[in-house]
């Protein structure tokens, strides 16, 4: 759903840029409360993983494909504020290096793909978690539903922006029906990827999933015929925690590199939902050439390499590397600025234990 230059007029693009900038500023402040010794090392990895999976377009209908947006996944794994930053970093890298998503439309893309998806998904997720039993399965079910809803919500947001500042005269009802219809299907794919990823992390390290914190009641012990709470576990030493996180980090990095460097070659070549709707309805009549069209990595290929498999795979690997470096740098800088007042509360350290 990367909006190119020329779909939205200049005044609305500027307004969307202001909204995106404000959202990023709020997220930078909010992320200070979310980024701790567990989430900070993983936030950059989440951004890189989203970049990699976005290269894997999957077919959803005749002649149409979809790809992960990532807002729901990022919000549940590392928190909603950090999630907005994760997707924003991905969009920035894609726009500058790979000519994917217009530079003048960067504000539109961040608003639609980062802000709307993350906010909607996390609101739905938290609401479901409060209603469902406190079990690991409830987390994955909530993640699935939240992801499904977040994608058509993004399609609605784009449609509203197009209604205000679209550069072509296409009936808004047609745009709305086409966008929401195809993105409901894409949302199912997004939900499957999100639920599988969240479920995989919960299976090995539930304490690393931000959205799963504080969901378990303390274990009970029977003492003299009465049930009492077990004492809280002492936090692991920093060195031990770092080693534990490193295994998850390395596994996630290896997965991202394989997906971007190898599996992406087998992705669907069909246009994604927005491209298909734009072509069918004429939204793309005034599309403009990308300012970074001459980038050596434009269109996810390395300039000068004639083998498409090697070119695309190497571009994907470079993208994962650049994204994880940029993301990690941003998140560690935010983490270092955290003050005692913005530290996570004691209750946020609760983990999913045997009781779930």
Describe the overall structure:
The chain is mainly α and 356 residues long. The protein has a single domain (10-210, 237-345), classed as Arp2/3 complex 21 kDa subunit ARPC3 (Orthogonal Bundle). The protein has helices spanning 10-34, 40-54, 71-78, 80-97, 106-131, 136-165, 172-204, 238-261, 273-281, 308-336; strands spanning 58-61, 64-66, 220-223, 226-229. The strands form two sheets. Strands 1-2 form a two-stranded antiparallel ribbon. A two-stranded antiparallel sheet has the order 3-4. α3 crosses α5. The model is unreliable at 232-236 and 342-356 (pLDDT under 50).
Biggest beta sheet attributes: 2 strands, antiparallel
Rounded average pLDDT: 88
Given the structure, what is the number of helices?
10
Could you say which overall geometry the principal axes of the C-alpha atoms support?
Answer: globular
Please indicate the count of domains. 1
Could you give the topology of this structure?
Elements: H1 10-34, H2 40-54, E1 58-61, E2 64-66, H3 71-78, H4 80-97, H5 106-131, H6 136-165, H7 172-204, E3 220-223, E4 226-229, H8 238-261, H9 273-281, H10 308-336
Antiparallel strand pairs: 1-2, 3-4
């Amino acid at each position: 759903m990367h909006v190119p230059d020329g779909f939205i007029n200049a005044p609305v693009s500027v307004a969307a840029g202001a909204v995106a900038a404000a959202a990023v500023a709020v997220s930078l402040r909010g992320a200070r409360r979310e980024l701790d010794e567990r989430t900070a090392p993983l936030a950059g990895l989440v951004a890189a993983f989203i970049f990699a999976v976005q290269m894997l377009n999957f077919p959803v209908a005749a002649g149409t494909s979809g790809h992960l947006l990532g807002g729901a996944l990022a919000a549940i794994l590392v928190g909603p504020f950090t999630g907005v930053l994760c997707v924003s970093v991905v969009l920035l890298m894609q726009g500058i290096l790979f000519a994917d998503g217009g530079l003048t439309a960067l504000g539109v893309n961040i608003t639609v793909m980062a802000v709307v998806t993350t906010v909607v998904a996390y609101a739905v997720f938290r609401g479901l978690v409060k209603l469902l039993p406190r079990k690991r399965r409830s987390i994955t079910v909530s993640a699935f539903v939240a992801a499904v809803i977040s994608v058509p919500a993004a399609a609605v947001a784009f449609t509203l922006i197009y209604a205000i500042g679209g550069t072509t005269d296409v009936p808004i009802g047609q745009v709305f029906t086409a966008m929401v219809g195809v993105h409901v299907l894409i949302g199912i794919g997004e939900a499957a990827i999100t639920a599988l990823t969240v479920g995989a992390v919960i299976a090995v390290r539930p304490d690393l999933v931000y959205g799963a914190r504080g969901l378990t009641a303390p274990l009970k012990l029977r003492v003299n015929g009465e049930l009492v709470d077990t004492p809280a576990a002492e936090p692991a030493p920093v060195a031990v925690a770092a080693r534990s996180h490193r295994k998850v980090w390395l596994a996630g990095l290896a997965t991202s590199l394989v997906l971007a460097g190898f599996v992406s070659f087998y992705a669907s070549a069909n246009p994604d939902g927005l491209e298909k709707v734009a072509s069918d309805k004429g939204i793309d009549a005034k599309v403009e050439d990308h300012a970074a069209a001459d980038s050596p990595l434009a269109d996810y290929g390395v300039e000068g390499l004639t083998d498409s498999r090697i070119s695309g795979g190497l571009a994907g690997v470079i993208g994962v590397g650049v994204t994880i470096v940029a993301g990690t740098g941003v998140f560690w800088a935010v983490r270092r600025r955290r003050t005692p007042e913005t530290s996570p509360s004691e209750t946020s350290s609760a983990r999913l234990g045997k009781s779930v």
